[in-house]
């Protein structure tokens, strides 16, 4: 009968913890994800409720057909007005991306706006 050997104090011991690298990597990623969630939620909450943090910004995507060097007059897709909306949530993030993709698809199928898209992408790709 194999007895359960006691593990040593070294958390990186390859004998006691053969998966220590993977586990450290997973823990590091978890911290990053938690930080991302906190930042995204804090920003959205402060922005939607007008809490004067000095740094909260609306989450939005600028559509390429109206991109300008300064960002002026750009057509923008808004994420959400809800204080509890969470861009760190994969479902909400994907819904936002899908809305942007649908809008982009619409522009590409518009007989006039598709040329705006083409021109804007050209300008973005060839900065002067
Ligand atoms: Zn050990």
UniProtKB/TrEMBL annotation:
Tell me which species this is from. Paraburkholderia ginsengiterrae
An example Pfam family from this entry, by short name, is DUF2515
> What name goes with this protein?
Uncharacterized protein
Supply the InterPro entries for this chain: DUF2515 (IPR019658)
